[in-house]
Design goal:
Elements lengths: L4 E4 L4 H11 L3 H9 L5 H8 L14 H14 L2 E5 L4 H16 L3 E5 L3 H4 L5 H9 L4 E5 L6 H9 L3 E5 L14 E3 L15 H12 L4 H18 L6 H16 L3 H10 L6 H18 L3 H8 L3 H35 L9 E6 L6 H12 L3 E6 L4 E7 L6 H6 L7 E5 L2 E7 L3 H15 L7 E4 L1 E2 L7 H7 L14 E14 L4 E8 L2 E7 L14 E13 L2 E13 L4 H17 L10 H13 L7 H8 L5 H13 L3 E4 L1 E4 L12 H9 L4
Parallel strand pairs: 1-12, 2-3, 2-4, 4-5, 5-6, 7-8, 13-14
Antiparallel strand pairs: 8-9, 9-11, 10-11, 14-15, 14-17, 15-16, 17-18, 19-20
Length: about 675
Amino acid sequence: MSHKKWIVRDADKNKASEISEKFNIDPFVAYLMVSRGIVSDVEVSMFLSDNCFLTSPLDFADMDEAVFAVGEAIDVGDKICIYGDYDCDGVTSTALLFDFLRNEGADVMYYIPFRLDEGYGLNNDAVDKLCAQGVNLIVTVDNGITAFDEAEHIYELGMRLVVTDHHRLSGDRLPRAEAVVNPHRSDNNLKFADYCGVGVAFKLACAMYDGDTDDLRQRYLDLVAIGTVADMVPLKDENRNFVRLGLEQINKNPRPAIRSFMMRNGEKQYTSTDITFQLCPKINAVGRMDDAKDAVEFLLSDSVDGAEVLYSRLIEENTKRQEEEQRVIDEIREIIAKNPKLVSDRVIVLAGKNFHTGIIGIVAAKVLGIYGKPAFVISVSDDGTAHGSARSIEGFDIFDAVSACAENLIQFGGHPMAAGVTLYTDRIDDFRKAINAYARKNFPVMPHGEIVIDCKVSPHYLTENLVDNVASLEPFGTDNPQPVFGVMNLRLLGITPLKDNKHIRLELEKKGKRIRVVKFGTSPDDFPYRPGDILNLAVKVSKNFYNGKNYVSVQAVDIRLASADDEKYFSEKEKYETYRITGKGDSTLYPDRDTCVLVYKFLKKNGGWSYDLDELYFRLCQRVTYGALMYAIKAFVQCKLIKYNKTITLSDTDGKVDLENCEILKTLKGRLRLG
């Protein structure tokens, strides 16, 4: 995995102490709140309050018009279609509004486009089908805000449209519709705008309902909570209330679908983290791999037995998704092995034949995680077109980058952290060159990944009491993540493989205190540390119930040698990459004889090197610069002292090698104008 910079939050301890005393909360929790910017009395009260107030839906512009249009359709018996999306937010939105209108007596159906054939949002072929089925009114959920042409087509066919969506507007332009309900409209009367699609759909239901809205909360806030955490909108203000109340409903009175999920995952108090990582991926998987209708029907199940059948289907599709994802990852590894220069670019662009387009975004995220660079994964079709998905790092707006390369694309879309592109296959290389030229021009220093650590703690503090105190910050999600703690200077005692070598458990010690830490997704063979190493760990803590007993689970988010110096690493690596791009550098890039001897002796002592070169650097960084190490390795390869293909193996050689006459070092020396 790419090396990330650790950022340790800071907080005003006096302010934390004041909040702790005034609100009678644990001092440590108060410190965490202050470090997250929750400092005023109003902010603290709202954050801690059990009174989850929900704002008026009429604060949305066009909400009255939406209520009238849908209500009129119900009254006259018009057929209504809820037009959704295939991701978890879209699925929960569809299920919620369909069920609500059905209970209101509407003649209602729903439609979700098929990802692989139709793509996202309204399309004219689907509109034509709905017209043929007698639909009079289309109500979008989680889409529609930029469907300008499709909206016109709806009215040409004699149908009407209501748009509910949470995505950003295209300037101030709105599609033709009876009403457009969107939290990002400038004429809203909202204090908070970061709703997801299901949040907006729920607001429409609340506006239409004549009874006590507490009834709607009990019926639907579980769906709102699931869609909200899945869509990674900020968990603050009303979103926080949605999720808190929704989780309460999930745990107290789960609908049949949720009960079937719980039957497979154990009886416990379910948190937002459980929903995010255990349920949402399975709902998403159906839309990625097949027809999202099964996910909607799962959520709408009126019996546990019926839900159980559909939940098995979700699990099956998620397994297929995982298998397909692994197949594409394996192919990408082969592509990189054949052309390692692809991952040397500032923006990584990888293309392969007929990758499943439902999972290329996930794979792009994994490439980003490994290399720490913005990454595109592109699926090349047999018809000469290609479809790609991108993921980026904070600080590099991938949508802006793609927009700057629009001449190479058929179409594109996205936001700062993710984007999708369609292009002709023969333009992929041009696109790769263009987006990297953009990166070089606009980002002399590329942003790098970060891990935010809430505070440093001793291993003695990793207790049930800590977990219980931190739970008051729930629910966790975007803008309120589960706390990450830094535990420093631990001696590694042992490594135990778990679950077919897919994960590891570490035994560590500091000042007589031993702890066990799990690192998921890392095999023993890929773990670059050994017993005796002194390590720093970034960890999350939780409480698990097993064999009738609670115990603290410590999960490693990141691990590094205690001697690692972030500032030195990023500075030296940037200097190395700048030289490769611009040819400008200094003597610190050149590995002199002493450096080469040091590196080679280390490799010889360790029988080569089986891990990432950055990890080799951290072993030697006290005596070697990043650039000098990289060029020493290149020189060893050129002089046939070693072989390098993801791992370093020593070559059989008896004779002495004159490295100073190695072509790569002679060239480097000349360019740097060293004597």
